[in-house]
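Structure ticket #2291
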Amino acid sequence: MAASRQSANGSIYQLKVTMRGSKPPIWRRLQVAGDVSLGKLHQIMQAAMGWYDCHLHQFEVDGISYSDPDQDYGLRMRNERSVRLDQVAPRVKDRLLYEYDFGDSWCHKIVVEAIMSPQPGVLYPRCLAGRRARPPENCGGMWRYSKILEARKDPDHPDRDAVQEWMSYPLDPEAVDLEVINKSLRLVR
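Resolution: structure written out below.
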């Protein structure tokens, strides 16, 4: 059985991650070590949502922004590598905002659902549940994604051909594959 990757203080955080503006909601339920840095949580978010990590990102907690100190934002950001999840969200019901791709502005609301002891033999981080596929990278944000779905569904939609050409791969907006997500999460170090 795989060894657990556990936090130093022994706590595991159960997080509900929901993409803001998604209707019906796009969400994941994750369990992560409480002492994970926000920098590592960024990598976990990328794996859980299936993003490609090719855009800028930030966390916001109580009006304070955290991000990669090596990225040039032109804004003042605190170092995400030097702060842990259990420091910025020490209690159940605490919230964070994670924004990925400042152009498309994929905002994810993260809520601490539970704080618990690790289970023996369980590998963390892990994804317990989720609903719906995340939108494609660079599609123009949630508003544009909803228009893409409309065009793909309606054979008479005036933008259908352009959307089909731009998105040449199959897209099932209802699909979420927990096995694939958890394989990706095991690669986060």
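Closing remark: The first helix runs from residue 38 to 49.
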